[in-house]
Each structure stands twice: as C-alpha cells, then as structure tokens.
C-alpha cells in the first residue's frame, strides 16, 4: 500500500515522492542550519544516542539509508570506524553536500561511497550489508512496507538495523506542547531559515502522521526483524528503534 506521508491516508506513491524530492532538492544547502536551530541542538544528542544504540563493528559494511547531507554516515565513521559505508539518498542535491563534507575529511580514514538510491527499490544484491542506519528517512517514504522489505533483504543474516525518527511523546502534556511547537513554530523557523515555509508545514504534518513507537516496532516485526526495541529521547520526541535480521 502507498500513502500520502503528510496524512497517512492511502494515495499514489508519486504524490509523496515528488513532494519530497522538491523539498529536499531545494533546501539541501540550508538543511543542516535548519536542523541545528529548530531542535535547539537536540538532534546532536539524538544522533549520539543513535550511535550508542547501533551495534556496528570495525569489520562491518554499513549502508546508510536516506543519508542526506551525511550526518549519520560521518557520525558512524567517527564512532564506529567500520570497514566501509555506503551513503545513499533519493535526492542528489543532498548527497552533493555530503560528498563535499567527505572531501573535507568528515569520515576520517573510513571509505565512503555515495549513490542516489530510492530505499523502496534498493539496487544492491541480497545480504550485502552487516548493518543499516537510517535517520528521519522512513517517515518520508510512501511505500514503507516495501522499503522495510528492501532494507531487510540487503542485510546479511544477523545484520543490525538502527533507525532514528521523530516519534510520539507518551506524556499527554508534553505531547500537547510539542504538537503546538510543530504546528506553529516549525513552519515559522523553517520559512525563516530556508525561505520554504510549505516544506516545513509538510514536516510538521508528516511527523504527526507517523506511527508511534509501538506501531513502528510492529511494522519492523512484520518485515521479519527480530529483537525489536526502542529508546525514547527528549520524552519521546525522537526514538531510536533497533532490530536484527535473524541468523
Ligand atoms: C530529514 S532528511 C535526513 C537526512 C539524514 N539522514 C540526517 O539525519 O540528516 C530525509 C532524507 O530522506 C531522503 N529520502 C526521502 N525519501 C527517500 C527514499 N524513498 N529513499 C531514499 N531517501 C529518501 C530525502 O532525500 C532526505 O535527504
């Protein structure tokens, strides 16, 4: 099934794919500045948490899905020093920024390759990677079951999955405040920093429409993953889900 990622309602996949390509190709060079400002720097803490949760070793081949401007790829290179990272994303303009950071030495000695890849149709053979990372990617994908099936397929048996995504604060008061921030302040910040207010109306709506922690965990189990667990950050504004492909 494909959905409109802004509402969660059934809709043709092209609707969300074209919108997401439009948004990220136009904000690519301003994306990092917006992240830092809108989350008051919290995204750095969440990324560090993601790296603590990620079971990635020095001999691992890693694939970063929806790698964007390379934040997760470079954090992984620094924290885990794996054998190789394949940094992939749907939008070439985002990867162009990542490539520039790589040229400036952001990955240290870890070799990284970059390729434009739709996670819903990954062009790599089965069982190619030991570990998969993805931050803020799956929420933007209209065919989520298909994307998770593809991620499961390219992992080797025993391979690990680590996903950072916006989620749902369990506390009602905190959730109310957060949803107010999402609805009223995110479009304001986004418009100010990037000039693309509509892109940030989309961001807010897609966060609210995304399954909560338990529902996303169930999707992972349905895709075949085992040992599914999650850890909340900032009261559940963000969550890191971890899982493993069975041996
Ligand atoms: C919010 S950014 C996250 C980038 C990066 N992971 C980070 O943590 O900064 C979302 C990224 O998902 C990418 N994306 C959206 N749909 C995708 C798809 N179907 N396949 C691969 N990447 C996708 C977008 O191009 C964008 O770069």
TrEMBL record:
Q: Which domain of life is it from?
A: Bacteria
Give yes or no: UniProt keyword Coiled coil: no
Q: Does the keyword Transferase apply?
A: yes
* Record pathway: Quinol/quinone metabolism; menaquinone biosynthesis; menaquinol from 1,4-dihydroxy-2-naphthoate: step 2/2
Chain sites annotated for binding S-adenosyl-L-methionine? 69, 89, 118-119
Species source reads Adlercreutzia faecimuris
Q: Tell me the protein's name.
A: Demethylmenaquinone methyltransferase
One Pfam family matching this protein:
Ubie_methyltran
The record's catalysed reaction(s) read: a 2-demethylmenaquinol + S-adenosyl-L-methionine = a menaquinol + S-adenosyl-L-homocysteine + H(+)
As for family, the record states: Belongs to the class I-like SAM-binding methyltransferase superfamily. MenG/UbiE family.
What's its EC? 2.1.1.163
The record ties this protein, via InterPro entries, to: SAM-dependent_MTases_sf, UbiE/COQ5_MeTrFase, UbiE/COQ5_MeTrFase_CS
Q: Which PANTHER family match?
A: 2-METHOXY-6-POLYPRENYL-1,4-BENZOQUINOL METHYLASE, MITOCHONDRIAL, METHYLTRANSFERASE
Q: Which GO terms describe its molecular function?
A: methyltransferase activity
Purpose of the protein: Methyltransferase required for the conversion of demethylmenaquinol (DMKH2) to menaquinol (MKH2).
Q: List the keywords (alphabetical).
A: Menaquinone biosynthesis, Methyltransferase, S-adenosyl-L-methionine, Transferase, Ubiquinone
Provide the GO biological process annotations.
methylation
């Amino acid at each position: 099934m494909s959905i409109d990622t802004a509402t969660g309602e059934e809709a043709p996949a092209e609707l969300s794919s074209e919108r997401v390509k439009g948004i990220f190709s136009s904000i690519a060079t301003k994306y990092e500045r917006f992240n830092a400002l809108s989350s008051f720097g919290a995204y750095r803490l969440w990324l560090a948490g993601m790296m603590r949760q990620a079971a990635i070793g020095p001999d691992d081949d890693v694939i970063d899905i929806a790698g964007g401007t390379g934040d997760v790829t470079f954090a992984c290179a620094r924290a885990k020093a794996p054998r190789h990272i394949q940094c992939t994303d749907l939008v070439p303009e985002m990867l162009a920024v990542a490539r520039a950071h790589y040229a400036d030495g952001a990955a240290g000695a870890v070799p990284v390759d970059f390729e434009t890849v739709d996670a819903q149709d990954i062009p790599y053979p089965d069982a190619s990677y030991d570990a998969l990372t993805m931050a803020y990617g799956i929420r933007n994908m209209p065919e989520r079951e298909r994307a998770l099936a593809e991620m499961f397929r390219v992992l080797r048996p025993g391979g690990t999955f680590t996903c950072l995504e916006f989620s749902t604060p369990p506390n009602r008061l905190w959730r109310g405040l957060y949803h107010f921030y999402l609805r009223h302040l995110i479009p304001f910040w986004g418009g100010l920093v990037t000039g693309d207010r509509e892109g940030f109306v989309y961001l807010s709506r897609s966060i609210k429409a995304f399954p909560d922690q338990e529902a996303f965990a169930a999707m992972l189990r349905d895709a075949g993953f085992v040992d599914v667990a999650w850890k909340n950050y900032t009261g559940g504004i963000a969550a890191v889900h971890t899982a493993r492909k069975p041996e």
